[in-house]
Amino acid sequence: NGATDEIATTGNVLLDSGGAIGSSTNRIEMTGVNTMAARSVTSQYLAQTSGSLTVGTVAALTPGDTALDIAATSGSGMVTTGAAQTLSLTVVAGNLNVANDIDALATGDLHLASGTGAVATTGAAKLIANTLRVDAANSSTLNNANTVNTVAANVTGAGQGFEFTNVGSFA
């Protein structure tokens, strides 16, 4: 949360952490990223400050340095392997498109936001979380086989709506 984006590119970004990615008080800020995938053991706090963003599949790049102690692997969606964690992704100016699953496990919290656009799932992408909060300016559609216990949505644009499909009952 500073004056400089931590990641600036016109390409794709794959983040992989044995701990957290960002924090509630210091998000990892990106600009110009087309497609992003992230996996972590604990929480993720990310923001795209400029341009629309797709949560999708990103191929790993293997550098010429053979001294790496772990092999790079491709990733898709946003995933945490730790129970009761938070996945939070904000697009400040643009749309947030979810093309691959976002999985906060059944015990985690998920917050998706678009300051000037919509939040939408595409293809078969689904959301898995204990709680889901969506903030958007435009109509947002999340109509896949989602598994969420509690949903809250705030769509601020005049005449805009919110659609959500859940495979189970709400808590």
Q: Give the class from helix and strand content and strand pairing.
A: mainly beta
Number of helices: 0
Order of helices and strands: EEEEEEEEEEEEEEEEE
Largest sheet report: 15 strands, parallel
Mean pLDDT equals 92
Report the span from N to C terminus.
34 Å
Catalogue the unreliable spans. none
How big a fraction of the residues is strand?
A: over 45%
Task: Tell me the radius of gyration.
Answer: 16 Å
Shape: globular
Percent of residues in helices comes to under 10%
The total of beta strands comes to 17
Tell me what you see in this structure.
The structure is a single chain. The chain is mainly beta. It is 0% helix and 49% strand. The protein is built from no helices and 17 strands. It has a 15-stranded parallel β-sheet that branches. The radius of gyration is 16 Å and the shape is globular. The termini are far apart.
